[in-house]
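User: Predict the complex with 3,4-dihydroxyphenylalanine.
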Amino acid sequence: MKEEIEKVLNDLDSLKCESLKEVEEARIKFLGKKGEITKLFEEFRTIAPEMKKEFGKQLNDLKQKTQAKIEELKGTASDSVSDKTALNDLTMPGYHYTLGSRHPVSIVRQEIADIFRKFGYDIAEGPEIEDDYHVFEALNFPPDHPARDMQDTFFVSTGHKDPILLRTHTSCVQVRCMETMPLPIRVICPGRVFRNEAISARAHCIFHQCEGLYIDEHVTFADLRQSILLFVREMFGPNTQIRMRPSYFPFTEPSSEVDVSCNICHGKGCNVCKGTGWLEILGCGMVDPNVLEASGIDSKKYSGFAFGMGLERIAMLKWQVNDLRHYFENDMRFLKEFGTSVEV
Ligand code: DAH
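Assistant: Here is the predicted structure with 3,4-dihydroxyphenylalanine placed in the model:
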């Protein structure tokens, strides 16, 4: 028995396995039902009782050593044999990789930026946490205007007497531009905005807007109309029509809301445009002289226009995604619609 134990120990020392399959074969060879060590244990039952003490310990040590060696080999052996087969077999199907894709809101923001860059506009950004002055006061919101209400605005508790809040629109960036940029000013200001809304298919507490501002001498409403028309034709196609409806914003006078002809039914009426043939896409107007003066611009010499649009709204119209929540849930099934996947 002594020699047999030594032989197994030697075999174990020189044992090498490349793959998990070989490790399993080794385990069966030593420890399986008919394995060498199992056989030694059977033999042990028949040996003289005075020898049992010596060999019992040796056999138990041998079994433990073998189990430890098998575990060690399992850790180091790779399935390299099957890997090699896969590499050599060029007819095997490729691995499927999904490329990351841009978020639909980012795609829309980029398209808007590209269009206005062609018109000579710069891009400006401002802080998302703003003061009451830039979000409301400098934009001619009266102190009791409902938009300032807790119901619409998220306030940040700072202990300061001047309210600090999450901006409710990107129009505050136009104020910062008027304060700091030399005239004439031509900028768009894309960014994230926040409103205290219950989340539903049609409303969300976080969304994105893009503001536009043009200030120079002799800027007229006709310039505004033509700029918007050129923009929507680049964005939605060369045959797109616009319709301007009178509206009210505290920071523009006159103010207007702009509809584009429905790019799904081309004016005939469908469920996207709710049978009207028109889709509302932005608000705009001539910058109110009070707003110019608040930022130190001479309203006798300069005039300008401003406009603001919701990026999720444009994306909804572009891809007919009718539930705002999709834009924020990061559901891969939704995001994958805007990307590509490749096989390599
Ligand atoms: N700030 C407006 C809003 O959040 C959008 C807007 C309307 C911006 C008219 C403008 C504008 O610059 O002229 O609803």
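Residues 169, 171, 211, 249, 252, 283-285, 306-308 surround 3,4-dihydroxyphenylalanine (CB under 6 Å).
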